[in-house]
Amino acid sequence: MRECFSFDPEYINMNHGSYGSLPSPVAEAIKPYYALAEANPDLFHRFTSIDLIRNVRERMAKFIGAAHAEEVVFVPNASHGLNTILRDFTWNEGDIICSCNTSYKSISTTAQYISDIPPHPENAQFSILFPTSHTKIIQDWRAYLQSLNETRAQSARELGRRPKIVAIIDSIISVPGALLPWKEMVKICKEEDVWSVVDGAHSIGQEPDLNLAEADPDFWVTNCHKWLYAKRSCALLYVPKRNQHIIKASFPTSHAYISPEKRDVLNFVEQFEWNGTIDFVPYISASCALDFRAWLGGEHVINAYCHRIALEGGKRLAQILGTEIIDEGQDFQFTLNMVNVAVPFPPTMSSDFEIDMAFRRKLLIKKKIYPAFFYHNGKWWTRCSAQVWSQVEDFEFLGEAILEACKEIVREFGDGSEEKAIREIGKEVENLTLKI
Amino acid sequence: MTSPNSLETLTLDQVLKPNSLFQQSAPKFGHDFLKYYSFKAGFLNLNNGSFGALPKVVTEACTELTAWQEENTDYFFRIGFIPPLIGVREQLAKFVGASDVDEIVMVANTSTGMGVVLRNFLWKSGDIIIRCNTTYATVYKTIQYIHDTTPGVQISEFQLLFPTTRKAVLKGWQKHIDNVKLNAPKGSKIVAIVDSIVANPGASMPWKEMVKICKDAGIWAIVDGAHSVGQEPLDLKTSGADFFVSSAHKWLNAKRGCAFLWIPKKSRDIMLTTIPTSASYVSPGPDRPETNIVSQFQYNGTIDYTPYLSVDYAFKWREWVGGEAAIHKYCNRLAREGGKVLARVMDTNVMDPDGEFTLAMVNVVLPIAKDLSAVYDASIATALTNKLLAQNLFAVTFYHRELWWTRVSAQIWNDLSDFEILGNALVSICSEIVAEHKNANIPQNSKAQSFNSYLERPFKGAVAHDYNKGLGYPQPVTATTVVPVGYHTHLASIRP
Question: For a designed S-S bond to A369, which of A12, A306, A346, B261 qualifies (C-beta 3.0 to 4.6 A apart)?
């Protein structure tokens, strides 16, 4: 399988989830489009690419189960799509924008920015702490939205109008790499009169049998250049017809923008067809990627393999490290093609970012193997992506490499027990001082 | 390419092989240069201005850059891309006369750069945005969007009407600014968009003087310099502008999807966030580092960095072909002489005979009957585009002041005979259009008083073009019926 990808032969790619990988056959398949773009730039950009992308959009719409092709447009990446949605809401005092502690960092900062500028909607945060379960998350989510609704009711009384609540929900969290019960969470949003904006960055090509018309989120975004093998950068923005009036403008604003009072037709698709000159071939590549995946055996075959390797590999890795998989107590209900295994550090280990940098040096550079590392709920974890080129042996090699790296890191950074002791002493001194 | 053996990072000179072409001496400008580009044989490209054209050597460098990216994506996106990106920004900073590398950030295109600046201002009721009738459509509509979404924001539109003189433009601009200032509510901010080089018509403006008029009046001046870099020398630190954006993929030979935004230190406080907001965003306040916006622009969502990094090789290409001065000299002379040839062949006139507004683009009236030019007609715009492409050549056509025009780009692969060919093609195309229009069933909402009033509400459906699944050339408009085929045909009439 590695023959189909253009990795450095010495490099074991265990982090497909972050940036995706472009298969060589897809890179080949899009060469003619690049040739067209240069053969006659005007023909390509005024006609050819528009027609081609129109066709690809229809194919993608079917693939994700949208009711209409006009509900799906291309954007450069999920962050861009999510920013378009969040910025197009008209924010008012009293509104609440709700993300999670596990939201992708740039989405948290987007919510922070929106709350930083007038009229300063409230920036609320739902908490998910692993280990947990789908059942617990659903329970907590309902309770959380109900509490937000109480806040809203209070604001409504004070303001004399009813504010809105916009919730950003991951379909699959990035770190940890975990499938959420997002469809149930979307349902609860509807029950609680909360807008559901789904960050599905990792979904397409990893979560099989997407059916957005059925799941019916208010907005949904996914990256085709992650698990679908499209060229960077390529993502989909899904907005069901009922919500397209919320999307007043693309970013950048298109020539096709029409002022709301003059707009008597939905021009959602038109606004996203041209937003300045870019390399349009990545959007076309999504279709070539689907062809490649069909040749590999299709979505179910690909994901069955990746899922199996994720579980087997994860178990083997946990065995070697002497630790655990994050959701082994919940029957791996959070695991699709990414598996999260605890790193064998002492429990006092610091959460310092420098430790992530140390893993980079020791694994990415020195051993040419690299999964993602992250600190969550008091522990360091590693997130491994299983792909069609992955084998359980990779996890074994990784396990040995991590064991060695951990020993070195504890030597270099200390095991955090000293800092913890100092903090405890500090607290005691504070208490004594207060008493006096 | 060798894999990284240390956290020591690589420069582009280490990543990219030197091209053996640079050992040879470059040919003279003109058709001898065609072999270094990838145009389909026989395609006459007289429209560098819209989409640029990637020289083959830069295409090859881009292939290597993409391969490097794919070898080890974690290395590339966490470590590898950063020094080369800074290197490109340093090169650009020097090239455009910025004071410091941190004044230059990369964006996908000018529309994005202009959009992110305009959307970072915290708009309030009473604020005024000054645009021109000739402001590029995406910027024009961004201003419209801001007006529509912020109650009380006013738009003041300056009418830039060609033909004119630089003196008249400056006089009119001064008067307009004075008037806006006089009537502006107290405490409001006023922001003006100045095009360094207008798109339609293709006209180099006295933009530094226009910026000075703005600054003397205490208003913000954001310069849309989309066409500037590579077409005119720049010294931004002496320009007085508050922001400047330019597309490197137009006249600087970079890969499409590459532009820069100049944010002088005095303007940094306006720029709170990139769009999309970066993970490195810090809320305004004492904890926010001064260069936070620069960090934000370094990474704000996964993209293909190849277009940005291609600037390095684009500079090498331009050095090899003869350098900036030689390129400008050739293109400017060709634009002027070519315009005269066109006017002769079409028996019309050049918009700017004295050449006050002419760098590498020239505008000439089209021989279309006056009664067809009385109002803007999108079907004519599309027909012109279709018919030009059907004849295997292209220049932009546009409507301005009740006349149809062509805007022609002069590039180092063009020579005077190209203008002769274009002229003859346009003569036959225009007479075809005039004849067909008589019997065509043009939809009523294809027409509008002016291009700008049409732009308020571009609509679905216009003029037919047959297409062979987009992979062949469109067929000419048929004589007797006009069939709406879809919105995208309008793009031909709107994008310059």
Answer: A12
List, in order of start, the domains of chain A with CATH numbers. 29-289 (3.40.640.10), 299-419 (3.90.1150.170)
Å between B344 CA and nearest CA of chain A:
26
Give the C-alpha distances (Å, rounded to integers) separating B20 from A363, B23, B35, B317: 37, 5, 15, 12
Task: Please indicate, yes or no, whether residues B454 and B308 belong to a single structural domain of this protein.
Answer: no
Q: How confident is the model at residue B234 (pLDDT cuts 50, 70, 90)?
A: very high
In a domain, residue B9? The reply is no
What is the reported pLDDT for B490? 38
Q: Which two tokens stand for residue B482?
A: 């006009």
Coil/strand/helix, residue A320: helix
Is residue A301 a contact partner of residue A272, using CB atoms and an 8 Å limit? no
**Does B121 map to a domain?**
yes
- Residue A7 near residue A21 (C-beta atoms within 8 A): yes
Question: Which among B289, B314, B339 is the end of a domain?
Answer: B314
Considering only the beta carbons, identify the residue of A37, A117, A365 that sits closest to B7. Answer: A365
Cα gap A86→A88, rounded to integer Å: 6
Give B10's contacts in chain A (Cβ within 8 Å).
none
Kindly report the CATH number assigned to the domain that includes residue B308: 3.40.640.10
Residues B432 and B347 in one domain: yes
Question: What's the confidence (pLDDT) of residue A78?
Answer: 98
Answer yes or no: do B141 and A257 touch at CB < 8 A: yes
Residue B355: CB atoms within 10 A of its CB come to 14
In a domain, B26, yes or no: no
Q: Which of B273, B294, B314 is the last residue of a domain?
A: B314
> What's the structural domain count of chain B?
2
d(CA B475, CA B482): 13
Task: Give the pLDDT confidence of B385-395 residue by residue, as tens digits.
Answer: 888 988 889 99
Q: Convert the pLDDT of each residue in B108-167 to its tens digit.
A: 999 999 999 999 999 999 999 999 999 999 999 999 999 999 999 999 999 999 999 999
Residue B289 has pLDDT above 50, yes or no: yes
Cα gap B265→B330, rounded to integer Å? 36
**Does residue B65 form part of some domain?**
no
Whether B21 and B63 have beta carbons less than 8 Å apart is answered as no
CATH label of the domain that carries residue B416: 3.90.1150.10
Average pLDDT over chain A reads 94
Minimal Cβ distance to A50: which of B73, B256, B491: B491
Regarding whether B250 and B378 lie in a shared domain, the answer is: no
Beta-carbon count within 10 A of A1 CB = 12
Q: Quick one: B118 and B229 in the same domain?
A: yes
Bond preceding residue A252 cis, omega within 30 of 0: yes
Contact B121, B270 (CB under 8 A): yes
B:338-377 residues touching chain A, CB 8 A cutoff: none
CB contact under 8 A, B74 and A370: yes
Q: Average pLDDT, stretch B27-38? A: 97
Q: Kindly state whether residues B158 and B278 are assigned to the same domain.
A: yes
Name the stretches of chain A with pLDDT < 50.
Answer: none
Q: What percent of chain B has pLDDT over 90?
A: 78
**Pair B287, B154 in one domain:** yes
Model pLDDT for residues A256-286, shown as the tens digit of each residue: 999 988 888 888 998 999 899 999 999 999 9
Q: How confident is the model at residue B5 (pLDDT cuts 50, 70, 90)?
A: low
Q: Are residues B439 and B310 in the same domain?
A: no
Terminal Cα-to-Cα distance of chain B (whole angstroms): 40
pTM exceeding the 0.90 threshold for the entire prediction: yes
By three-state DSSP, how is residue B81 classified? coil
- A49 HSE (CA, 13 A, CB side): 30
**Residue B307 shares a structural domain with residue B406:** no
